[in-house]
Protein: Protein CcmA, bactofilin family
Amino acid sequence: MKLTFDSEMEDAHSMLRDNKKHNQTTDTLIGQGSVIDGKLDCESNLRIEGKFKGEIHCKGQVIIGETGEANSNIHGTDIVVAGIVIGDITTKGRLTITSSGEVKGNVSVAKLIIAEGGLLIGTSTMEKAASPLPIKEKVSKSAQPEAG
Structure:
């Protein structure tokens, strides 16, 4: 039996180094057992496994884990709810409510995915994601038959 732990760790360290080169931000974690009250402005990804009460504005992905509870209005790029959210959610990306997730509030999203068992108690508004401008086609002049 051969262990490949060293090579796997090397791959993980390599990925971390590459990620740091491209992304100078650090993900934010509110761990299980933590309770926070306030306003959170986040430049990176956010994961909540504890309890948070207040406003959340996140430029990255927001994940409310299975043990997470957010009594918050949430604005984020992509949002995954596996725990409980009481408040409104706004994203120009995708909202995913997993089978263990509950959202009690209104959602305004581009894409909405609710797994079997997931709950949305509120209204949903969906807007198309911004798409690139259409390419103008060249109009060709076709030969006009002469009247005769």
